[in-house]
């Protein structure tokens, strides 16, 4: 691990430590005995079903990547699935620096340039972000079950923000699709005198997005990608609901609109977390369960940790076994990805 990664990890650790301290300090009466009782009493059948849903989601991701690859090669979903599973296992165990393991493995196995698969990965994130934002926005504005919740007025304001964000994302993607090379050249000309490294990096990112967007070669592919992305996030929402329903009230009454809102907190928290330990996701979910959905502290902590284990960590054993079978080391893969990324800059 580089010095930059060590420093970033230390900073995140300190931030998470402070946040956890402040959260648990506000719960003067937290009862660990009740916490363990709630955890042991969770319905394992629902949790197992949630794990199956999450695993099916990785199949959807592999199928979606196959559609991205149509213009350049005829990949098979079953060939892309191992790289998908190993990549997400690396993300769970090693943290954000391992995010590019998946495009690296796909590029190597399909004999494609690494930069082209990084571009696909970037566009995949657009579809993920846009699809989830659409689902959350529709939930905020059209789900009556959210109106009695605390801070609903603030959620409505956030919904308007998401509407503009999605429109901006669509507009930006369209402009990059139409003229990424021209935009990249303009950025370099405009900013190279003041910040040459930043200008070249931004231009390279614009070109990469453009290349990725051109993998969507017809309307059929576009609508397939949109449909699969929406289906993927609904499947994740179903997994969230199953985990919530594994616990007693008030979590057992949570609906799909409730869990979509909860997922938004978890995704926001995931920006601050440690490799293999997480932190931000659990803390955000716990805070939402306690302060928005009215769960007692012990129940909120147990469910928040279970949500993170099922939706983020559960893929790690399968990915680790697949990596061992193919004689791959996740740590070495991370180092190779960093080398490839440096060569692209």
Helix content bin: over 70%
Secondary-structure-derived class: mainly alpha
Q: Look at the structure and give the mean pLDDT.
A: 84
Cα(first) to Cα(last) distance is: 19 Å
Number of alpha- plus pi-helical segments: 14
User: Rg to the nearest angstrom?
Assistant: 21 Å
How much β-strand is present in the residues? Answer: under 5%
What gross morphology would you assign? globular
Tally of strands: 2
Q: Could you list the spans in which at least 5 consecutive residues all have pLDDT below 50?
A: none
Neighbour order of strands in the largest sheet: 1-2
Order of H and E elements: HHHHHHHHHHEEHHHH
Largest sheet at a glance?
Answer: 2 strands, antiparallel
Topology (SSEs and partners):
Layout: H1 3-25, H2 32-40, H3 44-68, H4 77-94, H5 101-109, H6 114-142, H7 152-191, H8 196-213, H9 219-245, H10 256-269, E1 273-274, E2 278-279, H11 280-291, H12 297-313, H13 315-325, H14 330-344
Antiparallel strand pairs: 1-2
Helix pairs in contact: 2-12, 3-4, 3-9, 4-5, 4-13, 5-6, 6-7, 6-8, 6-9, 6-10, 7-8, 9-10, 9-12, 10-11, 11-12
Overview of this protein structure:
There is one protein chain. The chain contains 14 helices and two strands, in the order ααααααααααββαααα. The model has no long low-confidence stretch (mean pLDDT 84). It is mainly alpha-helical and 345 residues long. Helix 2 crosses helix 12. The protein has a two-stranded antiparallel ribbon.
């Amino acid at each position: 691990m580089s010095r930059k990664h060590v420093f970033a990890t230390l900073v995140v650790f300190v931030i998470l430590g402070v946040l956890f301290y402040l959260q648990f300090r506000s719960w003067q009466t937290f009862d660990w005995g009740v916490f363990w009782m709630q955890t042991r009493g969770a319905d394992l059948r629902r949790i197992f079903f949630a794990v199956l849903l999450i695993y099916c989601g990785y199949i959807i991701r592999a199928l979606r990547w196959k559609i991205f690859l149509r213009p350049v090669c005829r990949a098979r979903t079953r060939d892309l699935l191992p790289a998908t599973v190993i990549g997400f296992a690396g993300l769970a165990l090693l943290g954000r620096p391992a995010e590019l393991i998946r495009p690296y493995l796909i590029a190597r196995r399909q004999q494609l340039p690494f930069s082209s698969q990084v571009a696909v990965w970037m566009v995949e994130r657009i579809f993920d972000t846009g699809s989830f934002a659409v689902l959350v926005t529709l939930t905020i504005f059209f789900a009556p079950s959210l109106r009695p919740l605390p801070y609903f007025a603030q959620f409505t304001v956030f919904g308007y923000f998401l509407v503009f964000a999605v429109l901006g994302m669509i507009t930006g993607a369209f402009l990059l699709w139409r003229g990424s090379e021209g935009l990249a050249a303009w950025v370099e000309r405009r900013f190279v005198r003041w910040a040459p490294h930043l200008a070249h990096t931004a231009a390279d990112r614009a070109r990469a997005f453009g290349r990725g967007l051109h993998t969507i070669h017809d309307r059929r592919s576009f609508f397939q990608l949109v449909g699969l992305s929406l289906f993927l996030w609904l499947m994740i929402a179903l997994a969230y609901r199953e985990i919530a329903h594994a616990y007693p009230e008030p979590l057992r009454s949570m609906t799909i609109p409730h869990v979509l809102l909860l997922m938004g907190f978890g995704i926001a928290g995931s920006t601050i977390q440690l490799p293999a330990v997480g932190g931000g996701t659990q803390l955000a979910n716990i805070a939402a369960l306690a302060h928005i959905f009215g769960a007692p502290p012990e129940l909120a902590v147990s469910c928040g940790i279970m949500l993170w284990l099922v939706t983020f960590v559960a893929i790690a054993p399968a990915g680790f076994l697949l990596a061992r079978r193919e004689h791959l080391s996740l740590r070495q893969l991370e180092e190779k990805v960093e080398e490839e990324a440096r060569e692209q800059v």
